[in-house]
Amino acid sequence: MSTDLPYLDLNRAMWNDWTGPHLESAFYDVEAFKAGRSSLNQPELDLLGSVTGQRLLHLQCHFGQDSLSLARLGARVTGVDLADQAIAAARQLSQDIGVPAEFICSDVYSLPGQLPAGQFDVVYTSYGVLGWLPDLDRWAAVVAHCLRPGGRLVLVEFHPVVWMYDSDFTRVDHSYFNQGSILETENGSYAAPGSGSTHQSITWNHSLSEVVSSLLGQGLSISSFREYDYSPYPIFANAELVGEGQYVVGPLGRKLPLLFSVVAEQGVG
Ligand SMILES: C[S@@+](CC[C@H](N)C(=O)[O-])C[C@H]1O[C@@H](n2cnc3c(N)ncnc32)[C@H](O)[C@@H]1O
Questions:
Q1: Strand residue runs (E) in the chain
Q2: What would the pLDDT profile of 102-133 be if each residue is shown by its tens digit?
Q3: How many structural domains are present in the chain?
Q4: Rounded distance from Cα 91 to ligand 1 centre (Å)
Q5: Any idea what the CATH number is for the domain that residue 138 is in?
Q6: Which listed residue, 5, 201, 227, 241, has the most CB atoms within 10 A of its CB?
Q7: Per-residue pLDDT tens digits for 228-237
Q8: Measured from the CB, is residue 128 less than 6 Å from ligand 1?
Q9: Which domain holds residue 101?
Q10: Atom number in ligand 1 closest to CA 125
Q11: Residues of the chain with pLDDT under 50
């Protein structure tokens, strides 16, 4: 699906403006991160397994906490993000903690012009990424371009059912299916709700079949596909902790899928 909207400019401006408040936020807790805390959660740790020595491309890395957590585990990490202020913050964080990683400021779709084909053992991307991209077939083509033969994609993402609801989970506002761009006004952010900022953003809803068929369309094989009844982040209304690192939407409990994950492998032939 193509778009004529200036979605990259609008979304970049928002993510740039959110970077400063996020660096200061309790949500990201940069001081604890600098002191050694990993920002990775159990779902991705389970799926990634050992990354020691692996060349890992982290798409939509924000200001690099997950990228650098993976580098701390021994991966050779390249992080990519659209927002130049997030990338500048990621480079600074890398220097501050003395953990090397490469960071590239780029639209995901422009990567094939910047990275040679087949250079990565793992492409990793997680938690709030696909909705910023209008066309998952183009995204899957970038993933396939970047992976070496036998390399794998690890995706952990919020479940598309979540994006059907209003922010209080009381009303279905949007179709489950991709019916084109969604223009919204964001007051504050998930990590800094009181920052006082107001931005317009443009996103797309992508159903699970859209995700899966985009990867199959590039010839990748899906070796793992899961849905989860919790989120590791308390970012939804009435979040309730129901297990270690497991939050649900209060009144709905474990009835609602909040995450899904996919591992997909590039063929060797
Ligand atoms: C929700 S954040 C990812 C969060 C990450 N898991 C974390 O917790 O830090 C989404 C990121 O996608 C980036 N982004 C949005 N559109 C993009 C695009 N077209 N290409 C590359 N990055 C993009 C934003 O700048 C933002 O940093």
A1: 55-59, 76-81, 102-105, 120-126, 147-158, 182-187, 198-203, 221-228, 239-243, 246-249, 259-265
A2: 999 999 999 999 999 999 999 999 999 999 99
A3: 1
A4: 16
A5: 3.40.50.150
A6: 201
A7: 999 999 999 8
A8: yes
A9: 7-265
A10: 6
A11: 1-2
